[in-house]
Amino acid sequence: MLTKRIVPCLDIKNGRTVKGVNFIDLRDAGDPVELAKIYADTGADELVFLDISATEEKRRTLLDLVLRVAAAVDIPFTVGGGISSVEDIDNLLHAGADKVSINSSAVKNPQLINDASAKFGAQCITVAIDAKQIDGEWFVHLVGGKVPTDINLFEWAQEVEERGAGEILFTSMDHDGTKNGFANEALEVLSELLNIPIIASGGAGNMQHFVDTFIKGKSDAALAASVFHFKEIDIQDLKKELKKQGIAVRL
Annotated catalytic residue: which of 45, 51, 88, 130? Predict the structure, then answer.
């Protein structure tokens, strides 16, 4: 049985880790390299770094940060934000990232998924999808959730898989930062539609929420930020609880 992954997410703005609610009202959560090292040492399976203002500010992800993180941790980490070309991906992987996450650029230029997967392998390519429910339907949003589209979440997820993505990072904008649990109904639909791993993001508030997304949402990994950054949940304690409830994790 494949083990379920616990993935702390570090949203980066101006070189610092930040966290908000529903993608707004950001507050400082510390130095990203220090946090990364703590998470690597306390049982995180992977890390995700998202340079959340890179796309909006039309600049590239901070390569210097990637180099520093690569030197500090020995677990896989994914980097996203402002990635718009195969060259950008090449630079990040060479700087030490294990995977890259593309979001807005994948929607604007879906061929990027094909090209990146062909060159670097599907295992290096994560497609992040930020979506919001409007009148009962899930729609994809771009540029850190600021730009709505008429693209259906489930149709886009299927296209992403067909084009060669290795996994999907799905964030429910409705659930982000609310601590009311993950969007398990949407996650369950995604898991039935797709054959690639799905990372659940948005809504973690307590340990039971992680249990629920693995059982009800059928997620392969669960990503969270503030509950880890502000020490509301300890990763080792979380994994012990998951194991107690019959969920396979790496202790």
Answer: 130
